[in-house]
Amino acid sequence: MNTTQNNDLAARDAHYLWHPYTQHKTAAPHIAIQRGEGALLWDDKGKQYIDAIASWWVNPFGHSNKFIADAIYKQLTTLEHVLFGGFTHEPAIQVAEKLKEILPSNQQKFFFSDNGSTAVEIALKVALQYYYNKGKKRTKIIAFENAFHGDTFAAMAASGISFFTEAFSGSLIEVTRIPVPVAGQEEASLDALKELTKTNDYAAFIFEPLVQGAAGMVMYAPEALDTLISTCKDNNIFTVADEVMTGFGKSGKNFACDYLTAQPDMMCLSKALTGGTIPMAITTFTQELFDGFYDDDVNKALFHGHTFTANPTGCAAALASIQLLQQPEMQANIQRINQQHLAFQAKIAQHPRIKTTRVLGVIFALELKTESKESYYGGLRNKLYNYFIDKGVILRPVGNIIYILPPYIISDELLSEIYETIASAIEEVH
């Protein structure tokens, strides 16, 4: 019965659905997930999977989290949605008040949208329009090489993974990329930025603070980023911290920017914002940026909006998620996972097939040695992915890079199973 149901679901999926980042001509049938609990998922054959990447980094508190579900239910029975143009509601105000308590102190204004890409889109539009409102022409953006900021047009332009964006290269805003200040490249990164500041062309510098997620969890030091942010401030270039992936505890602190001395002008938040329940994003701003739109001239307003802006149900989920994040037990879980990652790193780092390993907070990554550069969705990556799925572990390698980013509530036993599966893959998959 279960097998028949699975075949039916797979056939129905193939008949109707278009999945993200998928070449459907060559892709395997999609696995039908029926339910989840904690760090585990089950498909409709009854097979169990460990969600070792928190379902694309959105689900830190576990699947079917009752605390968040209860908050959503309570909100649904009071006010499920109301338009945010001309109206407001307490859940949105509470989210802003709660974020104000935990974000860098210069973040004063909060603009809601739907996902990480739209959060970035809004930040870049604000940077460009700010100077337009001032009668100045700053039409370009600075970003890191190999960045990923999303799939809407401005977010694509700021991203540096070419095969995601090359079909649209003639339709994007102008972005200049500088080297990522990884160890040994700090000076080259700073020099490249300083060269760009000699003009008055650039409105903003956008970055993934301390960890480039889609590039393969590439990590760099906060001191290097502090220097880049300070240089931008000295030259009136706004800074945008894309914390869509790193936000809400992933780095070991509430936000990766908490490791910095300098403060960004804007921050982009999504993914774990609602604990993996309801799509929602927020872009945060300094008072200076808001004031650049505050005018008697209506044309200087920010004409951007979404139908579900500040959806009350999503706000309720966000409030519950932030409350969970702040619990001492959850903070202890983050530190526990970090210690487990460090222990695994110490055990495996010297393996002859491993080129590098890195850990920050709940993020672990290792890079396998390859004879040639492994493509993003290359043969080795696909073999590894299929091996992990066969073993009941959801991991999505990036080329030759395997990373773990688990829910914070994962047990030590399940973490050990993930580590053991990766260790066996290193021996068996070539």
Automatic annotation (TrEMBL):
Record pathway: Cofactor biosynthesis; biotin biosynthesis; 7,8-diaminononanoate from 8-amino-7-oxononanoate (SAM route): step 1/1
Main subcellular location: cytoplasm
N6-(pyridoxal phosphate)lysine PTM sites in chain numbering: 271
Binding, substrate: 56, 271, 305, 396
Superkingdom: Bacteria
UniProt site positions, description: Participates in the substrate recognition with KAPA and in a stacking interaction with the adenine ring of SAM: 21
Reaction equation(s) it catalyzes: (8S)-8-amino-7-oxononanoate + S-adenosyl-L-methionine = S-adenosyl-4-methylsulfanyl-2-oxobutanoate + (7R,8S)-7,8-diammoniononanoate
Keyword terms, alphabetized: Aminotransferase, Biotin biosynthesis, Cytoplasm, Pyridoxal phosphate, S-adenosyl-L-methionine, Transferase
Example GO molecular function: adenosylmethionine-8-amino-7-oxononanoate transaminase activity
Pfam family, one: Aminotran_3
The keyword Transferase belongs to this UniProt entry's keyword annotation: yes
Co-factor(s): pyridoxal 5'-phosphate
Location relative to the cell: Cytoplasm
Record CDD domains: OAT_like
Listed InterPro entries: Aminotrans_3 (IPR005814), BioA (IPR005815), PyrdxlP-dep_Trfase (IPR015424), PyrdxlP-dep_Trfase_major (IPR015421), PyrdxlP-dep_Trfase_small (IPR015422)
Role of this protein: Catalyzes the transfer of the alpha-amino group from S-adenosyl-L-methionine (SAM) to 7-keto-8-aminopelargonic acid (KAPA) to form 7,8-diaminopelargonic acid (DAPA). It is the only aminotransferase known to utilize SAM as an amino donor.
Alphabetized HAMAP family for the sequence: BioA (MF_00834)
Quaternary structure note: Homodimer.
Family, per entry: Belongs to the class-III pyridoxal-phosphate-dependent aminotransferase family. BioA subfamily.
Protein name: Adenosylmethionine-8-amino-7-oxononanoate aminotransferase
Organism this protein belongs to: Flavobacterium litorale
Gene: bioA
